[in-house]
Design a protein that fits this description.
Layout lengths: L14 H12 L10 H12 L7 H4 L1 H4 L13 H20 L18 H18 L2 H5 L3 H10 L11 H8 L7 H18 L12 H5 L6
Helix pairs in contact: 1-5, 2-5, 2-6, 6-10, 8-9, 8-10
């Protein structure tokens, strides 16, 4: 209603619910290839910054299988989808209000790889997978989207960006993150800036980063 109060923020998933979601994703039967929770979070942000809203019927199948194959008969994905929908609503509220949100990024043990870019890669790969599946943003974004996209895609390898010389040139101007907190800030800033830029019409060159989504590694 015009002039009324904005709707309250959706209740975020608590730690137990997030762990439950992770377990439900892991329980998706082979040969389906579900997202893990880190990739899922980036994927949802990539869905939400599109110029036109995407109905859940288009993106939800890619949560339980990156290629969108249907779950087998007899597999009950209702609880999984309900938890995903709640996270989607939470992120949608934050992005619409242009306010901070906490990406699902998991700090790695130092003996695995202490670099912040490694910790954020699953989230970035999920975001890139969404833009590969739904390239509306890349087709309709303003030139400002190049800089916003660079904040996120800087964490992909150059080999994962095809025909993206302009984007790589922008990435080359960025200082590397000092720590994981700075890398996470890049993800949030890039997402919110892309939400601003997604309504204009100048083209941004499409990148092909789906291979990175498939190589992003195991679950946190």
């Amino acid at each position: 209603m015009s002039g009324g109060r904005p709707p309250p923020a959706p209740r975020p998933l608590d730690d137990a619910e997030r762990e439950r979601l992770e377990a439900l994703l892991e329980a998706v039967p082979a040969p389906l290839d579900p997202l893990d929770t880190g990739m899922l979070d980036g994927f949802l942000c990539g869905v939400l910054v599109q110029p036109q809203p995407l109905p859940a019927s288009r993106w939800m199948p890619h949560v339980t299988d990156v290629d969108g194959r249907p779950v087998p008969a007899g597999f009950d994905a209702g609880e999984l989808r309900a938890l995903v929908a709640r996270r989607h609503a939470e992120l949608a509220h934050a992005i619409a209000a242009r306010t901070w949100f906490d990406p699902w990024v998991y700090e790695l043990d130092d003996d695995v790889d202490p670099r912040p870019e490694v910790a954020v890669l699953p989230w970035v790969a999920g975001f890139a997978a969404a833009l590969e599946l739904f390239p509306g943003l890349l087709h309709a974004a303003s030139p400002a989207a190049q800089e916003a996209l660079a904040l996120i895609y800087r964490y992909l390898g150059a080999d994962d960006l095809e025909n993206a010389d302009e984007l790589l040139a922008v990435i080359a101007t960025l200082e590397p993150p000092g720590d994981l907190a700075e890398a996470v800030e890049d993800l949030v800033r890039g997402t919110l800036l892309l939400a601003d830029a997604s309504k204009s019409k100048a083209p941004v060159r499409r990148t092909a980063a789906r291979a990175a989504a498939r190589r992003s590694g195991g679950r946190p």
